[in-house]
Model the fold of this input.
Amino acid sequence: MISQQTYLLNGNNLQVRPSAGFVSPTRRLDGRPDAETAQLRGPGVRLPPGFPCTFLVVALRGGSSTPKASGRIGSRESESLQKKQQFHLDLWFYFTVQNWILDFGRPIAMLVFPLEWFPLNKPSAGDYFHMAYNVITPFLLLKLIERSSKTLPRSAVYLCIITFVMGASIHLVSDSVNHRLVLSGYQLHLSVRENPIIKDLQPASLIDSFELLYYYDENLGHSMWYIPFFIILYVYFTGCFTSIREEGRTPLSSWLLLGPSALYYWYLVTEGQIFILFIFTFFAMQATVMHQKQKGLVPDSNGLFLFYSFGLALLLVSVWVVCLWNDDVLRKRYPGIIYVPEPWSFYTLHVKGR
Done:
């Protein structure tokens, strides 16, 4: 009787041979002779007699004993990859709607609703819009990062989101006071010290306080708000690339959202005075496209949507600047090489008086 046996594995088949010093024909685990296994070659694995063959095959192959289960796992991985590559209509739609309503619409809501509903010493409708924006937008940014194939350290993502929320919150308070000044006669196309309702304040040190408020609104708040916002969008864009053979047509839904999305980015760049940050991000996206093209990769539908939105927004900003190029009042309000007037300054100068 053979007291010790050596099992040889090749592919999905096992061969049983006696250990050194024993003489026995090559046979299968079930004891029946097998001529095919006599030709097998492979490393020896010592096992006790009667060891279950199925378990050994599964253990050495690193798979599942049930073929259907293995197929389901591969199917799930394929579905997950396909989900990341397909156009994220739900997220982009939510982004567009909430940007237009909660960001662009908040100053309009402040002007439309009667003062009796929202007194000047209480939060306005636009303030509640801003509060909702500060909660919903970080959530959507996190969901966008989750669907990206580009992985980032969690600490970096959290730091961007925390900075974004802090900057948007600073802007919430200062912008709320600023729009109440507009209702009291403050003119956005003039500087703080040139405004009629500000320059006659007593004591004169109060003017410095209003200039500090303007700094928190237009400088610090916008920087802490928009820099992490564009960082997250760019990092997401770097993960939106696929091989040329997998390239698909841009879906119709992305073309329908392209106009509203680009128009909002135009408003973001002009009203937020972040043209340098925007153009730097757009150039970085162009450089990424050229670099990935050398590797045989092209943007997928999500990357094309984001890239086209930025490109169309840049065109709208150029048209806006050309149309107001000879406006002397706005030229004085926005001096320097980069001249990008704010839409609300245009409103108080040319629309509100009418």
Observations:
- Strands lie at 5-10, 13-18, 44-47, 241-243, 297-299.
- The mean pLDDT is 79.
